[in-house]
Write a structure and sequence with these properties.
Blueprint lengths: L4 H22 L6 E4 L2 E8 L4 E9 L7 E8 L6 E3 L2 E4 L5 E8 L7 E11 L21 E11 L6 E8 L8 E9 L9 E8 L6 E6 L12 E8 L6 E11 L2 E7 L3 E3 L9 E8 L3 E3 L3 E10 L5 E11 L2 E7 L3 E3 L4 E9 L4 E11 L2 E2 L3 E8 L5 H37 L64 E2 L71 E2 L56
Parallel strand pairs: 2-9, 19-27
Antiparallel strand pairs: 1-3, 3-7, 4-6, 4-8, 5-7, 8-9, 10-11, 11-14, 12-13, 12-15, 15-16, 15-17, 18-20, 20-24, 21-22, 21-23, 21-25, 25-26, 25-27, 28-29
Keywords: Membrane, Transmembrane, Transmembrane helix
Protein name: CARDB domain-containing protein
């Protein structure tokens, strides 16, 4: 296939043009946002006090919907700045006023730089078909206000009174006026009293004096600009007037202003009138307990200033629920004001809000708004969180159970592997006397043949006596059943049975074989006879075996060498076991009759037997 460079170049050009067109369609128009003034110089702010300031947030074109902006202090000293965390530019407006305060609480004297960032919050916008959402690119706008603050410890009183004005009125309507004060100091300030002298323009001798006491004069915070209002009852007749407004502080007049002319008309000339232009809510569907924000835009169309408020009657399914009233505001003539109400519904259902504005002695027509309140519930995200929490609790429970089970199993295994010392069993041992036997001294040990039992003699039952044992043997012994002689056998010497010595639990040790001289070491005893040293060259006579009787059979247990000797009682066929004397060969050393000990036997060399 031949590669066509010209076709490839044309295709690439078309693709590039299409990409630019798509980007132009997807990227929305972005309006610049600004702050006026962009920098604030707050000099001489008094410690542990506050100063108020205002800035205007601006956009280029009227907002197509309510635009929400977050106000976030930034920087190391941002906590000295106090203000609302959110500001809204209403739909159709291009600006909004934002008020904040500087509060250098416990701040050292010095200079500080602060920043206040305004960032647009992402909200759902209308798509091409009128529904919310849609595939659109969202570009967030923002601006930063720079504040330079100087903190001082000295109080400074400074202020400016810039203007004063009175409105037209009638004899039965109060005289309403305003004055503007800007506090340029670092402490709160207000005049002690205000004196007004009104005079007729055509006849300056026709005067009337009014006074405003300090109780009705508002304080102005440092850095704050206040348009204070005055409402005075009067007895002025019809005519055209001016007024001289004098401000007093600490007994002295600090400022005098002269107003522009105002009129006192004939009764009925001025009429109060107003109009409720629009009533809106922040949305139409809510959950129980969710806040409903209701706004009403009112316009004073009359010629006098009026005070008004918003009244809302709440109905559910045609039944009256509640009456809500907003904060009262003063609206100048030909001016607009926005009333706000915050409602919460405690039950689900469909609600109708009948809203009207009252001003002066009049009331506007009613406007209705319908909202829906649902019971709400846990959504998909909530269900996911609940599932994660339950699974986590289940896993934690399983882990705790396994830990407890392992500890209990380990404890049981540890108790099962420990040897518990028990008392030595009491058993009857038959001792027999045997003829003398010869033994050859040799270092090597040899097995000694068991001598035959002697003739039946009278049996004597001897209780065992505990004899301490001091040696251990590495070779285990085998239990032997000793034959019991007939009761006619002669009385044998008392046989002393060795006792089991209980040793405390110690670390495992290896039994040690103690060396013993061959000529002096006694021959290890056997279960059937008495162990003695015999004279050399004397034959060892083995007595014939005795038939055991059913009355008594004694078994001597021989434990296995271990860390600790554990003696287990053995069963005895008869309640008593007689002891029978068996002749033994004479020896150089008289050895006391012994029986096998419960302790392991010492590995002692035994001479070989010779006949």
């Amino acid at each position: 296939m031949q590669f066509n460079i010209r076709s490839f170049a044309q295709s690439s050009a078309y693709a590039t043009i299409a990409g630019f067109l798509a980007m132009a369609l997807l990227v929305p128009q972005v309006h610049a946002i600004g702050i006026s003034p962009p920098i604030i110089q707050a000099a001489d702010v008094l410690r542990n006090s506050s100063q108020s300031y205002s800035v205007t947030l601006l956009i280029q074109d009227p907002a197509k919907y309510d635009m929400y902006f977050s106000a976030e202090p930034r920087g190391e000293f941002g906590h000295y700045l106090k203000g609302e965390s959110e500001v809204v530019i209403p739909q159709g407006k291009t600006s909004v006023l934002y008020n904040f305060e500087l509060e250098p609480i416990d701040a050292p004297v010095g200079s500080y730089n602060l920043q206040l960032a305004f960032t647009e919050k992402q909200k759902a916008v209308e798509s091409g078909n009128g529904a919310e959402g849609g595939a659109k690119v969202v570009v967030l706008q923002g601006a930063i206000l720079v504040i330079s603050m100087g903190v001082t410890g000295e109080e400074r009183v400074s202020y400016e009174i810039t203007r004063s004005q009175f409105e037209d009125t009638e004899p039965r309507i109060p005289l309403t006026g305003t004055y503007t004060v800007k506090n340029t100091g670092n402490v709160e300030w207000k005049p002690e009293r205000i004196e007004i002298e009104a005079y007729e323009v055509a006849d300056p001798e026709n005067t009337a004096t009014f006074e405003v006491s300090g109780d009705s004069i508002p304080l102005v915070k440092p850095g704050k600009v206040l348009d204070a209002k005055m409402s005075l009852g009067h007895k002025l007749t019809e005519g055209r007037y001016r007024a001289k407004v004098r401000f007093y502080y600490k007994g002295e007049m600090v400022q005098e202003l002269e107003t522009s002319p105002f009129n006192v008309f004939q009764v009925g000339t001025l009429a109060q009138s107003g109009e409720l232009l629009e009533v809106t809510t922040n949305k139409t569907s809510y959950n129980v307990g969710e806040q409903v924000v209701l706004r009403g835009l009112f316009k004073n169309t009359g010629d006098v200033t009026v005070e008004g408020q918003l009244e809302t009657q709440v109905y559910k399914n045609g039944e009256f629920v509640n009456l809500e009233v907003s904060r009262t505001q003063s609206i100048d003539r030909r001016q607009e004001a926005t009333f706000e109400q915050f409602l919460k519904m405690s039950e689900p259902g469909e609600y109708t809000l009948e809203v009207a504005a009252t001003y002066g002695t009049r009331k506007t027509s009613v406007q209705k708004v319908t909202i829906t309140v649902s019971a709400g519930g846990v959504g998909a995200v909530g269900n996911m969180y609940i599932t994660i929490i339950l699974l986590s609790l289940f896993v934690i429970g399983v882990i705790i159970f396994l830990i407890i089970f392992a500890k209990r199993r380990k404890k049981e295994n540890g108790q099962g592997g420990v040897a518990v010392p028990v008392a030595a069993p009491q058993a009857a041992v038959v001792a027999a006397t045997v003829p003398a036997a010869s033994a050859v001294a040799d270092t090597a040990s040899a097995s000694v043949p068991t001598p035959p039992p002697a003739a039946p003699q009278e049996a004597v039952v001897t209780p065992p006596v505990v004899v301490p044992s001091t040696t251990l043997s590495a070779e285990p012994a085998t239990p032997v059943s000793a034959p019991i002689a007939e009761p006619e056998v002669a009385v044998a010497p008392e046989v002393v049975a060795p006792a089991v010595v209980e040793e405390p639990s110690v670390e495992p040790v290896v039994p040690t074989v103690m060396p013993v001289e061959p000529q002096e070491a006694p021959v290890a005893p056997t279960p059937a006879r008495e162990a003695t040293e015999t004279v050399p060259e004397v034959p060892l006579v083995t007595p014939p075996p005795l038939e055991p009787t059913p009355e008594a059979v004694a078994e001597v247990p021989v434990p296995t060498p271990s860390e600790e000797v554990v003696a287990t009682p053995q069963e005895v066929s008869a309640p008593t076991a007689p002891t029978v004397e068996v002749p033994v060969a004479a020896s150089e050393t008289s050895a006391s009759p012994e029986v096998p000990s419960a302790q392991p036997k010492e590995n002692i060399p035994t001479p070989p037997a010779s006949v």
